[in-house]
Amino acid sequence: MALRGTTVLVVEDEPVVLLFVSSFLEDAGFNILEARNADEAILLLETHSEIAIMFTDIQMPGSMDGARLAHAVRDRWPPIRIIATSAHTRAPKLPEGAKFFPKPVRPHQVVDAMYQMIA
């Protein structure tokens, strides 16, 4: 799978952070879908089979946090790679193979991790 054109679902409830992450991923050549909570993310996952990577915040309002979302995605869509982030918690228990980055994220680290995940 090539890096450029890979679809990434970005799940983030803070508008400024959502814009920042989406922008640096678009600049790196990814196609971006955005969700502001786990419920929106699940709807996008159900309708966009091209999603290859999910980048999610851990602390989010709604029916589930990012850690629970990561496990739900692994159960329903096992091929999707997962990266999680948080400013308020240490690395939570995530599905095997998932990566965690503390906020503030460094764009080059996230892009490098995504490249390694799909290489």
- Please tell me the total number of domains: 1
* Low-pLDDT ranges: none
Number of helices: 4
What's the architecture, going by CATH?
Answer: 3-Layer(aba) Sandwich
- The percent range for helix content is 25-40%
Strand content: 15-25%
Order of helices and strands: EHEHEHEEH
CATH topology: Rossmann fold
Structural class category: alpha/beta
Radius of gyration: 13 Å
CATH class: Alpha Beta
Mean pLDDT: 94
The strand order across the widest sheet is 2-1-3-4-5
Shape: globular
How do the helices and strands line up, and which of them pair or pack?
Layout: E1 7-11, H1 15-27, E2 31-35, H2 38-47, E3 51-57, H3 66-76, E4 81-86, E5 99-102, H4 107-118
Parallel strand pairs: 1-2, 1-3, 3-4, 4-5
Give short descriptive properties of this protein.
119 residues, alpha/beta, Rossmann fold, 5-stranded parallel beta sheet, 4 helices, 5 strands, 39% helix
